[in-house]
C-alpha cells in the first residue's frame, strides 16, 4: 500500500527573534501536490517560514499540522523523516560525497548494499557520480547545492522544502537545479515548497505562486 | 664547551646502542603516559559531550574550572595524590604509593582537564548548520550528537594529542608519587632529573634527545591533523 500523501496546514503562526517580529499571523494550507513557490523581498520571513513549516524550529504561537488523509500526524521522528529541508548554506558533512548521500539512509537503518545502489542512482541523475569519492567540502558552490538537494532526495521525502536553492549558484548550475525541480513537477512527486527571489524562476517553476510581504503571507496565489 | 660536545657524542652513542635498561625506561614512560591518556579520554570525552550538548546549572563554572586545571602545576597534583595514597591517607590501604599505578593516577588528573576542555571546544565550534542539516535529514537527537562529534573529530584528536604531550614531558607529579625506583617506577623524565643531579650528563642527554624526538613526532602528528582539519573546513 502506498502512503497517503501529506498535507500541510499552517495556522496563525507568529515568530520573533530578539523581540523583532519576523512572522505575523501566517496561515496557509498546502493541500495539493505540486510546486509551491514563495517569493518576496529579502528579510520578509521566507526562510523562517520554511524552517518552521519543516519542523526545524517551533513558532512562538500558532500551529503546524501535517495530515495524512484526515488524520493529524504527531510531530515525531517518523513524520520528520517524511519531509526534508535543504538549507541555503547546505551544511555538508566533512566526509566524501558518497558519505553525505548515505547519511540519511544510514540513520534510517538501511542495509549497506541497498544504500550503495540507491546513492549511485541518485548521484547519477544529479550528475555527481564522478565525484562520488571526492571530499564534499572541496565541491564548488553549485555542486554543493546540487549535492544538498540530492542528499535530501535520496531519502525519498513526500515533501521537499528548498530555501533559495539557486541563490549562490552560477548560471549553469542554476539551470541544472531548475531542470531537476521541473522533473519533480512533472512527476508530481515530491511536493516542493521553495523560496526564491528570482521572479523569472518563480514563474518558470511554480504550480502555485505565493507572495509574502513583511512577515505575513499576502496570499496572492496564482495557480497555473 | 668541550664537555657539552663530548656529552652529546656519548649520548648519541647510547641512543645508537640502546641497552635493556634504557629501553625499559622508555617503554615504562610510554606505558604510564599512554594508560593515563586512555583513562583521561574515557572520563574526559563523555564530559566534553555532556558540556557540549546539555544545558545544566553550574556548567559555566565547570568549564572555567577545567580551563584552570589545564594549567595545574604537576608538583601540586603529585602532592595531592601523595596525600591521598600515603599510608595515613584515605586511600592508603590500597598500597599504591610508589607504584606505576600511582603515576597513572597522577597523570590522569593532569591529562583529563586538557582532554575535556579541548574536546569541549572542538564540539561547540562545529558549525551550527551541521546540527540543522542532520535534523533535516531525519536524525534522532542521539544521531545528531554523534554527527556533531564526528564533525569535531580533528579537534578531538588534537586535544588528546596535546594531553599526551603534556604528560609525557611531566616530571613533578610522577617523581613524587612514583619515587623514581630503578627498574620499577623510573621513567625518562625522572631519570633525566636524577642523572643530571649525579653529573651523569650523557645518559640524561640521551634520554632528553629521545624525549624530544617523541615530542617532535607528537607535534608533527598534531600539525598534520590540524592541517587536514583546516583544509577540509574551507
Mean pLDDT of chain A: 89
Strand content of chain B: under 5%
Mean pLDDT of chain B: 91
Structural class of chain B: mainly alpha
Count of discrete domains of chain A? 1
Q: How many H/I helices of chain A?
A: 7
Termini separation of chain A (Å)? 31 Å
Secondary-structure-based class of chain A equals: alpha/beta
Distance between the termini of chain B: 50 Å
The CATH architecture name of chain B reads: Orthogonal Bundle
User: Which fold name fills CATH's third level, the topology of chain A?
Assistant: Rossmann fold
Computed CA radius of gyration of chain A, to the nearest angstrom: 17 Å
Main sheet of chain A, how many strands, which sense, barrel? 7 strands, mixed
Short description:
By secondary structure, chain A is an alpha/beta fold.
Main attributes of the structure:
heterodimer, A: alpha/beta, Rossmann fold, 4-stranded antiparallel β-sheet, 7 helices, 33% helix, disordered C terminus, B: 234 residues, MetI-like fold
Tell me what you see in this structure.
- The complex is a heterodimer of chains A (224) and B (234).
- With 224 residues, chain A is of the alpha/beta class.
- Chain A has a single domain, classed as P-loop containing nucleotide triphosphate hydrolases (Rossmann fold, 3-Layer(aba) Sandwich), CATH 3.40.50.
- Chain A is built from 7 helices and 11 strands.
- In chain A, the strands form 2 sheets. In chain A, strands 3, 6, 7, 8, 9, 10 and 11 form a 7-stranded mixed beta sheet that branches. A 4-stranded antiparallel beta sheet of chain A has the order 2-1-4-5.
- In chain A, a hairpin with a 2-residue loop joins β4 and β5.
- In chain A, α3 packs across α4 and α3 runs parallel beside α5.
- With 234 residues, chain B is an all-alpha fold.
- Chain B has one domain: Orthogonal Bundle (MetI-like fold).
- Helices cover 78% and strands 0% of the residues of chain B.
- The longest helix of chain B is centred in the first third of the chain and has 34 residues.
- The N and C termini of chain B lie far apart (50 Å).
- The interface between A and B is medium-sized, with 25 and 19 residues.
Amino acid at each position: 500500500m502506498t502512503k497517503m500523501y501529506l498535507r500541510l496546514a499552517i495556522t496563525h503562526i507568529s515568530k520573533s527573534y530578539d523581540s523583532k517580529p519576523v512572522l505575523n499571523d501566517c496561515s496557509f494550507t498546502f493541500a495539493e501536490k505540486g510546486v509551491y513557490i514563495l517569493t518576496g523581498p529579502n528579510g520578509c520571513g521566507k526562510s523562517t517560514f520554511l524552517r518552521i513549516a519543516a519542523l526545524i524550529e517551533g513558532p512562538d504561537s500558532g500551529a503546524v499540522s501535517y495530515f495524512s488523509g484526515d488524520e493529524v500526524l504527531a510531530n515525531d521522528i517518523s513524520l520528520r523523516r517524511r519531509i526534508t529541508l535543504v538549507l541555503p548554506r547546505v551544511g555538508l558533512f566533512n566526509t566524501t560525497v558518497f558519505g553525505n548521500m548515505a547519511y540519511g539512509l544510514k540513520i534510517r537503518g538501511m542495509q549497506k548494499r541497498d544504500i550503495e545502489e540507491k546513492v549511485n542512482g541518485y548521484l547519477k541523475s544529479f550528475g555527481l557520480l564522478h565525484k562520488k569519492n571526492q571530499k564534499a567540502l572541496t565541491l564548488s558552490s553549485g555542486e554543493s547545492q546540487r549535492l544538498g538537494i540530492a542528499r535530501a532526495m535520496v531519502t525519498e521525502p513526500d515533501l521537499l522544502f528548498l530555501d533559495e536553492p539557486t541563490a549562490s549558484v552560477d548560471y549553469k548550475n542554476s539551470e541544472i537545479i531548475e531542470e531537476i525541480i521541473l522533473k519533480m513537477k512533472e512527476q508530481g512527486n515530491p511536493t516542493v515548497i521553495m523560496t526564491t527571489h528570482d521572479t523569472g524562476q518563480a514563474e518558470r517553476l511554480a504550480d502555485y505562486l505565493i507572495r509574502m510581504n513583511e512577515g505575513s503571507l499576502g496570499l496572492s496565489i496564482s495557480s497555473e | 664547551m668541550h664537555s657539552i660536545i663530548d656529552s652529546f657524542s656519548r649520548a648519541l652513542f647510547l641512543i645508537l646502542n640502546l641497552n635493556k635498561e634504557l629501553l625499559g625506561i622508555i617503554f615504562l614512560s610510554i606505558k604510564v603516559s599512554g594508560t593515563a591518556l586512555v583513562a583521561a579520554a574515557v572520563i574526559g570525552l563523555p564530559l566534553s559531550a555532556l558540556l557540549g550538548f546539555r544545558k545544566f546549572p553550574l556548567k559555566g563554572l565547570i568549564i572555567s574550572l577545567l580551563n584552570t586545571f589545564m594549567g595545574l602545576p604537576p608538583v601540586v597534583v603529585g602532592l595531592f595524590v601523595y596525600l591521598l595514597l600515603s599510608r595515613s591517607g584515605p586511600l592508603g590501604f590500597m598500597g599504591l604509593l610508589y607504584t606505576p599505578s600511582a603515576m597513572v593516577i597522577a597523570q590522569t588528573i593532569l591529562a583529563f582537564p586538557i582532554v575535556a576542555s579541548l574536546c569541549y571546544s572542538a564540539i561547540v565550534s562545529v558549525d551550527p548548520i551541521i546540527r540543522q542539516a542532520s535534523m533535516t535529514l531525519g536524525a534522532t537527537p542521539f544521531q545528531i550528537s554523534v554527527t556533531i562529534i564526528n564533525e569535531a573529530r580533528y579537534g578531538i584528536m588534537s586535544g588528546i594529542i596535546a594531553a599526551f604531550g603534556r604528560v609525557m614531558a611531566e616530571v613533578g607529579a610522577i617523581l613524587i608519587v612514583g619515587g623514581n625506583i630503578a627498574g620499577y617506577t623510573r621513567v625518562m623524565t625522572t631519570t633525566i632529573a636524577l642523572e643530571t643531579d649525579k653529573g651523569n650528563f650523557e645518559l640524561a642527554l640521551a634520554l632528553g634527545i629521545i624525549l624530544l624526538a617523541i615530542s617532535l613526532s607528537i607535534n608533527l602528528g598534531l600539525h598534520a591533523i590540524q592541517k587536514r582539519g583546516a583544509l577540509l573546513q574551507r
